[in-house]
Here is the input.
Amino acid sequence: MSPSRRDFIKGVAAGGLAAGVARAGANKRFDGYPGRYGLLHDSTLCVGCRSCEFACNEVNDLPPPTAPIGDQKIFDKPRGPTDKRYTVVNRYREAQGNKPAVYRKHQCMHCNEPCCASVCFVNAFTKTPEGPVLYDPNVCVGCRYCVFACPYYALAYEYDDPATPRVVRCTMCYPLIKKGRNPACADACPTGAVLFGKRKELIKVARERIRKHPERYVDYVFGEHDYAGTSWLTLVGLPLEQVGLPAELPYEPLPNLTTHFLSLAPIVAAIFPGLLAGFYAFSKRREAVSEQKHRTQLDGERARALAELEQKLLEAARLAERDKQRAVARAQRLAPPAEKKEDS
Amino acid sequence: MYNTLQDFTAHAKGTSYVLAGLILVAVVVFWIFLNKKVTRK
Amino acid sequence: MNAPAENRGELFTPFNIITGLILIFGGAIVVLRFAHGLSYATNLTQTTTWGLWTGFKLVFVALAASGYALTTAVYIFGMHEYHPLVRPAVLSGFMGYTLFILILIFDLGRAWRIYYPFLVRPGVTSALFEIALCVALYYTTQFVELTPVGFEWLGWKRWRKAVIGVTVGLTVFGLFLSMLHQSTLGALFLAVPGKLHPLWYSPYIPLHFFISSAVGGISMVILVGLISKRVWGHKMEITRKKLDQLTIGLGKGSAIALAIYFAVKIVDISIANKWHYLGTGWGLWYLVEVLGFVLLPCVLFAHGHREKLPRLIRFTALLTVLGVILNRLNVSVVAYNWKFTIEQRYFPYWMEYVVVVFLITLGVVIFRWVAQRMPVLYDHPDYKGSH
Here is the structure.
């Protein structure tokens, strides 16, 4: 292949790559998969029957909850999702006079930008186009960083299993959704406190309810924007902290706090080896310079010493010569007079 | 196009890690090249 | 001085008996943990899933920083007078990472899948992925750095020469990897602002972790030097006097590092305006950690350096190491889920403590085995002064 044709192909390839990269970097907003599903939990409609817990356990092949429906003692202590129950209903305020008790159902929120997916070092979590976040037990190593990081304490781990422990949580009944049916809890709820539908529509429904009954609801749809939004939306009648939800969450997805720092790694890789090698070369250079100085100094001293020695030698030679001359002169002065008389 | 930030980050970081590895190799090669004594004939 | 007489022929020395018992008992617990699952040996809950073992993962890595600290000082910054301490420092660092890997394996749900992030499906967005990658590379680097010790012992001259030739390159690579993974271990906690107490949570946790690892590493070198000299006395080539001199020098380095760490902590509080937290109970605990285990050792190191007091410097090194351990445990276990009630809180099961003691003992025993047989504390007579 001639050089010019090779270069041409290279140029096209580079240009195509650059264009691809530029296009990929072009979208500044991530709106998520369009048309994805969500659930709306209107906690003011929840009466604490826990039918959803029973339905959820049945669909997921778990033993039914130990406390029967209607049991009130189960609400004495707050509960969270465990490896034996993927969803729980908690009571946040007891009934007072004609004010009903306040309950809320809690489970994995199926976030738009899931923390669990971001922190998993084997990419075991996937946000599906339909909305649910799925977990792949076939790659999970059991580090439990996802359980550690989830801001909603929604994940649980099978600590009892020595051989095949998994991370477990609400799956939004993904197999049922794929078949066009509703999640089990939505179907089981007798009061309509759990609605399943397109997330965009459910937000409209939620906002409409708030508009129609401002005395009933806090003017906030939890999950709309919190940490970039979740699939589970919650309407509440009490302030968020009082029903066990975090308040004042920023829009910025939680994973960003970590990924921003992690982007330093490749930059450090680009800078530091060269920089450190530079330090090494610099320190070696300083050693060499100081050694050179030292050597020059030694040479100088040696030269000076030699010169001095030479001087001393010359001086000694001169003195010796002078002494010799003096000795000769003295010897001549003291020469016997007889030799002089014979000459004249 | 990426629907979620997670997808974008996974792609961008994956590429960056590979590039970082190549850069490390390149630094070593460059360092050797820089310090090689040139013998004049 | 009651340095135990090293009678190589005798197997049942008090040291051997005690460590042997610990290793056997701890080993049994480890086997049971794998046979019955994590719930058998730990008190981990669904809301606190990282416990004492995770805390000690961080501790082992932070204290293993002796390796990169000393090789950097000697080979990159040219401080050749510390050369006799390089091999003990790298060996103890290598042991630290070995313990880290072991306790990680005990803590993982499916430890046999530990290679999955590299060979099956890399989760590149994860801080843990970067840590795994850097630690794997760094462990290899340290191992290669130590092979000359083995080669000298075995007499393989050419292998040894080959490795010594790349010492500086290994040091540079090691420092670069250490900076990355020491700080990224801190970055693990960036994901949980709501769960870690504000005094310990900071967007600059990675920086704090890196600086405190350097601090812990230098102090470990001082301690390893002290213990080695006490235990092996004349077998250790460097004289007591020279070791004292080096210790005083290391004290100066520690003082500087601790001063920087303290300054960073102050700025961290002011930048997020966290002053009011200092007046709470948690604030008091934070002040104990920062004033008692950062500022105090800094001052003591400085004083010890100025007045040439090696004994004070050694005591302060111990204080500093305890402070690093305290910091790592605070971040991972104590101040994590700080809002929990006593009922909700996690407290380690006794077996978790046993496993930690088991691992530390294992590290000491292996270090001892290597140092007694191989040219770590002294130069091999064939290669005197040639590295």
About this structure: Confidence is low (pLDDT under 50) at residues 1-5 of chain C. Chain C touches chain A through 57 residues (CB under 8 Å).
